[in-house]
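your task:
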Amino acid sequence: MLNEHAMDKRLNGKVAIVIGAGQTPGDTIGNGRAISLLFARHGAKVLLVDRRLNSAEDTKKMIDSEGGMSTALEADITKEEDCRKITEKCVEAYGCIDILVNNVGIGAGDNTVPKLDPEAWDNIFNANLKGIFLTCKHVIPVMESHGDGSIISISSAAAVCAVGMTAYKVSKAGVNALTHQMAMKYAKKGIRVNAIMPGLMNTPMAIEGISGATGKNKEELIRFRNDLVPLKGGMGDAWDTAYAALFLASDEAKFITSVILPVDGGQSSRIG
């Protein structure tokens, strides 16, 4: 049975696609898995999409154990045919698409402009921005056909306040711009389009990912990142992102569109 977190069922009867529903292995939970679990706890049927099927299936097992409903699907959102398959699979399995969460973000190989390899630039943009364009391209017509929908993309506070990243920062700024464009274009169709900008988070992609790439001690890295956050308590976690997504996906946010929502403990406010 679903646990106590599902008492109000804010997404009861809704169908959601979560892109990036698996996660990097680590000590904590990642954004995509937390969003998937929370949506299922609140009554949504969830299509769990990840390029690593075994990771999506691990998320499904967690949802199954709580009595939720989900389907795991392997797909690479940088390929248009896979994005078409995502849409078709969701409609086939659940009949419609009410919610799309684009939880994607890579930064491998990023560097300063003189040192950045064009291949790394292309890889980052393909995953972080082109992939969102492709998923929306195929999902929006389905949402248009029934006159409503909620699209939520996971951007990053790096879009407005990072100085040490190039392709990642610019690609996430592109996510914000794409969010605004789609929100204005499809508002009269009843489709709400918003984005979340997580700040410094204690997730496997951030901690294990950075530690593995740089050789920095995990405990020291966590202390360093905690000290950078204005709000008492240090870094946030994937549940902070998930609850923001839950609100934006729910009918409680029915009058909210084109919002870029920082979930960052105040960090992006430092830019003024």
Summary: The chain has a mean pLDDT of 95. The first helix runs from residue 31 to 41. The longest strand covers residues 191-198. The domain at 4-202+237-259 is CATH 3.40.50.720 (Rossmann fold).
